[in-house]
Design brief:
single chain, 63 residues, mainly alpha, 434 Repressor (Amino-terminal Domain)
């Protein structure tokens, strides 16, 4: 995922008020991994990246 996409998903997460800890718990990775990914310090494994994207895209904060 390029920098623009990474930044877009971080903004979407923040707009939907999704905490990093919430996503990490839901997809089974550490909060640190997500934080480092969003800050461009590391890449996520393909399956974790897909789970991260899917969670943000489908999350409904009206629950």
């Amino acid at each position: 995922m390029n920098i623009k996409q990474r930044h877009l998903y971080m903004l979407m997460r923040k707009e939907k008020k999704i905490k990093i800890k919430e996503i990490a718990s839901a997809i089974g990775i550490t909060s640190a991994a997500i934080s480092q990914y969003e800050n461009g310090k590391m890449d996520l494994k393909k399956e974790n990246l897909e789970a991260y994207r899917r969670y943000i895209e489908t999350h409904d904060n009206r629950k």
